[in-house]
Write a structure and sequence with these properties.
Radius of gyration: 19 Å
Oligomer: single chain
Largest sheet: 6 strands, parallel
CATH topology of the largest domain: Rossmann fold
Distance between the termini: 39 Å
Bound molecules: adenosine monophosphate
Number of strands: 9
Shape: globular
CATH superfamily of the largest domain: HUPs
CATH architecture of the largest domain: 3-Layer(aba) Sandwich
Length: 282
């Protein structure tokens, strides 16, 4: 695996490979890699000729400075995992490489209502930060395909919107969420949970499974939501949201009857200061 610290060298190498007819796959990450990330690398290797992974903890997408400071860094293990997975290139830029003019007064993107609901509502500025870093990364890498996880459902929709705004030819491939044996969605932030919290964390998955089952039995949404909220609270979670939304638009679709638009259940909640999110198509 070739490790690049500078965008210019990375872009030059990728252009050479593209001229030689290679299809380029791109997996952007913030490191602390787990098998969910590696599944994206595997998918990219299956669908393209050369895979680029980036590891960059993007300061502009953290609305909470403590979350940024405490974000896990396991770079040596990450490099070993990427080598073992057969990743071809790793882009490991510094903050100065990504934001040579600093991180103040950066460009803003028209994300419409996506920015005002769910993650957008509870993490103001987060998706602007995601777009700021993704615009830069996508421009540097110029991949044919971009692989991202359904775990961050709304992020996939935001990046899809960004690709439109950029008039990019990169194709977004959304990949399924990888879970631990007890259902907990794999996440870098799981590393910050104590053993006791780790056990309780599976409640999010249990609630999503319960929502799916109850939804399909046409139980009224307020009843389902109340049950999920109770279960989360009993496990010690502080809840940001438990919502049912239109799976295509993410607009609230919080009834279990009526027209048959596909729906997705989404949960965001804290265990102490660790914020976990997950979702499930119902
Ligand atoms: P992150 O490092 O958290 O920014 O995530 C990098 C990419 O990995 C994003 O596209 C995430 O959606 C994806 N990802 C994170 N967790 C999982 C998971 N459990 N399964 C599949 N993809 C994931």
């Amino acid at each position: 695996m070739i490790i690049f610290k500078y965008a210019e060298a990375l872009a030059r190498y990728i252009q050479q490979q593209k001229h030689a007819g290679k299809q380029i796959g791109f997996v952007p990450t913030m490191g602390a890699l787990h098998n969910g990330h590696i599944a994206l690398i595997d998918r990219s290797k299956k669908d393209t000729d050369l895979t680029v992974c980036s590891i960059f903890v993007n300061p502009t997408q953290f609305n909470n400075p403590v979350d940024y400071q405490k974000y896990p860094n396991t770079i040596e293990q990450d490099i070993m995992k990427l080598e073992a997975a057969g990743c071809d290139m790793l882009f490991l830029p510094s903050i100065a490489e990504m934001y040579p003019n600093g991180t103040n007064n950066l460009e803003q993107y028209d994300l419409g209502y996506l920015e005002t609901l769910l993650e957008g509502k509870y993490r103001p500025g987060h998706f602007q930060g995601v777009c700021q870093v993704m615009n830069r990364l996508l421009t540097m890498v110029q991949a044919h395909k971009l692989f991202m996880g359904q775990k961050d459902y709304q992020q996939c929709m935001v990046v899809s919107r960004l690709l439109q705004l950029m008039q990019s030819t990169t194709e977004l491939v959304t990949c399924p969420t990888l879970r631990e044996a007890d259902g907990l969605a794999m996440s870098s932030r799981n590393l910050r949970l104590s053993p006791e919290e780790r056990q309780k964390a599976t409640t999010i998955f249990k609630c999503l499974a319960l929502i799916k089952e109850a939804y399909n039995q046409h139980i009224a949404w307020p009843v389902i939501k109340e049950k999920a909220v109770q279960l989360l609270a009993a496990a010690g979670f502080r809840i940001d949201y438990v919502e049912l939304a239109d799976a295509n638009t993410l607009e609230p679709a919080d009834t279990t009857t009526g027209n048959k638009v596909p729906r997705v259940a989404l949960i965001a909640a804290f265990l102490n200061d660790v914020r976990l999110i997950d979702n499930m198509l119902v």
